[in-house]
Design a protein that fits this description.
The structure holds two protein chains of two kinds. By secondary structure, chain A is α/β, with parallel strands linked by helices. Helices cover 32% and strands 19% of the residues of chain A. The radius of gyration of chain A is 27 Å and the shape is globular. The C terminus of chain A is likely disordered. In chain B, helix 6 links the parallel strand 4 and strand 5. The chains are: A alpha/beta, B alpha/beta. Chain A: It catalyses: ATP + [NEDD8 protein] + [E1 NEDD8-activating enzyme]-L-cysteine = AMP + diphosphate + [E1 NEDD8-activating enzyme]-S-[NEDD8 protein]-yl-L-cysteine.
Amino acid sequence: MVLMDAPQSKSRDLDKLLLRSGNLVGPGFFPGTDLRDDIREYVRVLVVGAGGLGCELLKDLALSGFRNLDVIDMDRIEVTNLNRQFLFRLEDVGKPKAEVAAKRVMERVSGVEIVPHFSRIEDKELDFYNDFNIIALGLDSIEARRYINSVACGFLEYDEDDTPRSETIKPMVDGGTEGFKGHARVIVPGVTPCFECTIWLFPPQVKFPLCTLAETPRNAAHCIEYAHLIKWHEVHGGKSFDPDEPEHMKWVYDEATKRAELFGIPGVTYSLTQGVVKNIIPAIASTNAIISAACALETLKIVSGCSKTLANYLTYNGGEGLHTKVTEFERDKECLVCGPGILIELDTSITLQKFIDMLEEHPKLLLSKASVKHGKDSLYMQAPPVLEEMHRPNLSKPLYDLMGRIEKDTVHVFGTALKNEEKQSSLTKLRVVFKEVDGVADMDTATWRMNSKRKTPL
Amino acid sequence: MEKDEQEPTMSEPTKTKYDRQLRIWGEVGQAALENASICLLNCGPTGSEALKNLVLGGIGSITVVDGSKVEIGDLGNNFMVDKKSVGESKAKTVCAFLQELNDAVRANFVEENPDSLILTDPSFFSQFTLVIATQLVEDSMVKLDRICREANVMLVFARSYGLTGLVRISVKEHTIIDSKPDHFLDDLRLNNPWPELKRFVETIDLKTPDPIAYKHIPYVVILVKMADEWAKTHSSNLPSTREEKREFKDLVKSKMVSMDEDNYKEAVEATFKVFAPRGISKEIQEIIDDRYAEVGSNSSAFWVMVAALKEFVSNEGDGEAPLEGSMPDMTSSTEHYINLQKIYHTKAEDDCLSMEQRVKDILAKVGRDPSSISKQTIKSFCKNARKLKVCRYRMIEDEFSNPSVTELQKCLASQDYSSAIGFYILLRAVDRFAATYNKFPGQFDGGDIEEDASRLRTIAPSVINEMGCDGYELPEELCNEMCRFGAAELHVVAAFIGGIASQEVIKLITKQFVPMLGTFVFNGIDHNSQSLTL
């Protein structure tokens, strides 16, 4: 490197991107010290997970000009984390990951504030998530991703032309790794596909058929799962199996070994037992570092506009040579999580029964025998009989009252729909808007519009 | 002479700490890492992050070479330096941080500028297994490459430059037995069953009246039998035309009596294995035809075994490599499955014994100790014989002075590759710029940037011309962006590039999985990164 008098600024390198105008930049990019200082002072980023990806994300974001970070993780540090979760040492085993991670990064990068949250993501109020400009995910399960996705997309509002309202958009950057493979993606609710829109990307986990486990085991994994899923309950009755309890694991290993010997099957080891039962995913520092760096880079670009962003899914494979690929997935406009939902405008006097009847005739729905849910409340359930009876009184009440007399909200309806001449179970998201107008509901193919002067569709 | 691989012993606490990575490369791979010594040149974030990943993984030893002192600007991009270390040796500071990450690693530092070291003390590098050279300019890269080739030291280049960067391996030859491909067809030999397999298949009656037994016959048996019947009525040939293949598949389907016969469903899906061409793949054929397979006394164990493989294929293999020996899971009674497994296992062992004998004979023939290649190594070779890989890398100076013009033209013309080749050329162009003007374009703020940009836009086409392509110009916006980057070493880009470099190092040292070929050019703008083989 050529050595010359360099300006004594901590953000010597970042300044080149944030202070200088560029060519291949994001929309609304205003380079300058204001941008840099605003990122430092005002932008808040939430890092979900303080494990393999989370540790890297915190470091990467702290060294990318972000000063206000929060990190949430419900786990404690284990020895098997230490080959990659570099913020933790042997002495830290047992301590909450979020707290140690936050502390270590703050020790090394002065000026950055990291608030740790040692808790489950579900235990936080929704408002908590709304305080952040952008959320970076370093998670290891589909369920957790779905949860954060539904929360972030829940903030999204649409205006009358079904355009997402930009001030309600909560972007997310999501990363995942497994061995030498990984992915990084950008989710801008209402613009790019959300996690739910592309849920088909994640094939269901392959489980062994019960008859194989019970009758014709052929390999070590079959013997292990037999002990874990079948024999355990036979012997221990109601006691639930705890994979973190060494005695439980040893029991499964011993039983699996016995079964394997009985059938003449080789290969049962303690390590394999743990791997199968806990569904252990092999993990190394390098892949985590790569994927987190990609996510942090996108976070910086989305917030600052200093360059174009990833559109919108990066797959990475470093085991057989080195392969990266960018795919631009498209949104599912009817997505139940990030879509606007079909707009239905109603009079405040319409009863729940009438509403359910209307759904059957609505051209886009043709939904019969609908059950109706408003947020966490079931307003009406077609089945089972005991719940149907319990909710039956609601049918004669105005939907407006049942929904708490608010002007508009999201409602989910579930029933049997006629799609492509076939009857299918269907769950649909509806946007119900109440209007204080007299008259009868009309229908058209695009929206239902309450208008006392019209008797025919618009 | 090849050093034999001892079965390593690992303490329980260490096994636990490394559990998640042992599941990938095993204790043998881990031992290779722990025996390796790595030299890092320049410990800005690119180098530091690369080394961090290796230290966490338990690399044997590291030596950090960097002559600079920690500056305030480093606090903004390097996690391994902090306020207290400003003014101190960067190598010493980074080394101390890395040592703390894993006390099993031996961490050293040398406070010297790598460019000078390359000029004044080339023999310094011979002591290492591998050198990671970061942030070097073209001239130093070429010189270091010569030194490492000569000394037979593996070399990995890594560079971060604004939102771009590159990683390039430079090794004369890297042979891989345990390549662990993601997807590879099993070695069931349904298209070429050997006598013992045929005999076993004959003992099973497909037409059994017992419905339970019927649906627990493994598809291997079903297909070998049905293929044999077909051959009898088709002049000893297997289905080859599209019609024949369809006919055969329908024939298998027609044997299904009820819907729950998973074994027949699997058989229908596996018919393609009956049609697959016999014998070894083109890639393996190339390896056994390689001139290095004509072994001499200095040949590596790999090539000696390849020579044995060549003989095996032409003789007892009858066109096939040694049997891999394992079976995928399939619907079957336990008894049938275990019995079949034994048959595959036995043949694999027999093939391995033949290979062992051949290896011993070849070693003796070239004047080496016949037992110098262990049974274990030969066994692993046999198991992986269809998956062998040989990687060879051009020297940097050859690539620079004599790139493949057809590849170059293809990249320049392709939309997918245009930004990658653009950055590749610009990385060379900025080094030329620096050699002339004693700074990188856009390195400093102020009015100079415009002038630097226009100079860069002149230099870039001349690089392309030298590479053998006339009349090409790079998009102006790409050149301007390069100028905007001003040789910045951004932490996130450095972490990405360093991550890739560390992963390649792991593959090279463990000799498992397949290292990248060519030069990986990173595109941090839209992530359209590409590997270029020029």
